[in-house]
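Students often ask why inverse folding is considered easier than folding. One informal answer: many sequences map to the same fold, so there is more than one right answer. In these notes we will look at a single instance of the problem. The structure comes first.
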């Protein structure tokens, strides 16, 4: 015979055997287990839905960029187009010692460098240093400029636009090769912070969809893009406004402009390839980019998915404690 056990509730006292207690404990564990199984199943379904939503945005996602390194994390694309429009060679930019040489002292260049993995674009900060070499300027003057580009073009990290005033991003005057091949296209869907060298000290603008107009932009005032001084560029986006700050690192002169932008709509998603394009035409100049960094927040669906994973862990922990207490 099993030893009797007593428990009291109010004024009622009842005797229970060890066998009865063991049976009750197992019954309670079964109920708790079933409850947690249902909760875990619901959490798993919710997490699957969140990951399905976040999946396209997270495909190939790699958070943050810190410098150009040896260039292996970037896709470099480029070509040269002669005065008749013929593509004469494959001419990508170069990366050496952590510095991107976007264009050189040669006419007709279109060049691009994109990080190989998409980045979150809902809220980000990008910073880099830009510099021209005045000794490389053509008789026509420095030209044409460059662009910081976010894009989801079907060509991926290999996307490139037209040279000259197209800055390797857009396509000016539909300057196609006479042979009709290859067909040059602007980078789209996209958004670009454009930097033009032909407008006095320089001019800047933000445009989307591969659109580019070197005659429309904000003059950079006392910050000269063509002086040869290194110019620090800071781009900050909070989801609705892109703020651009330029600082001449030699004279300390500064310039700032803000643009209202819905980048997620313009790019068709919460992530995009990040990089630079540049172009030269009849005029040319050596343009370099260094000290490049890009930081962003994780897309919201991904954050929710991570919360769901944490929720599963919490439920499992509670189940273990409940089972232990019911014994």
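Output (designed amino acids):
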């Amino acid at each position: 015979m099993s030893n009797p056990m007593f428990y009291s509730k109010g004024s009622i006292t009842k005797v229970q055997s060890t066998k009865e207690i063991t049976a009750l404990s197992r019954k309670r564990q079964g109920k708790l287990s079933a409850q947690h199984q249902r909760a875990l199943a619901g959490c798993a379904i919710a997490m699957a839905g969140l990951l399905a939503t976040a999946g396209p945005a997270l495909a190939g996602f790699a958070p943050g960029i810190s410098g150009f390194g040896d260039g292996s994390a970037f896709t470099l694309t480029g070509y040269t187009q002669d005065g008749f429009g013929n593509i004469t060679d494959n001419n990508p930019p170069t990366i050496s010692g952590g510095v991107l040489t976007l264009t050189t002292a040669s006419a007709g260049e279109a060049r691009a460098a994109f990080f190989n993995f998409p980045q979150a674009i809902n809220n980000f900060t990008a910073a880099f240093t830009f510099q021209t070499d005045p000794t490389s300027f053509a008789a026509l003057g420095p030209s044409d400029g460059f662009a910081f580009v976010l894009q989801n073009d079907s060509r991926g990290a290999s996307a490139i636009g037209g040279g000259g005033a197209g800055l390797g991003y857009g396509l000016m005057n539909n300057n196609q090769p006479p042979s009709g091949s290859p067909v040059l296209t602007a980078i789209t869907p996209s958004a670009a912070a454009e930097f033009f060298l032909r407008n006095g000290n320089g001019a800047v603008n933000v445009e989307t969809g591969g659109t580019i107009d070197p005659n429309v932009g904000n003059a950079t005032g006392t910050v000269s893009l063509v002086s040869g001084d290194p110019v620090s560029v800071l781009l900050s986006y909070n989801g609705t406004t892109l703020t651009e700050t330029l600082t001449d690192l030699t004279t300390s002169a500064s310039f700032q402009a803000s643009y209202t932008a819905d980048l997620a709509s313009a790019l068709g998603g919460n992530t995009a390839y990040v990089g630079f394009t540049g172009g030269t035409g009849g005029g040319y100049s050596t343009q370099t980019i260094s000290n490049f960094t890009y930081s962003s927040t994780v897309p919201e669906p991904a954050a929710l998915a991570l919360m769901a994973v944490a929720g599963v862990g919490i439920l499992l922990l509670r189940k273990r404690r409940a089972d232990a207490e019911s014994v």
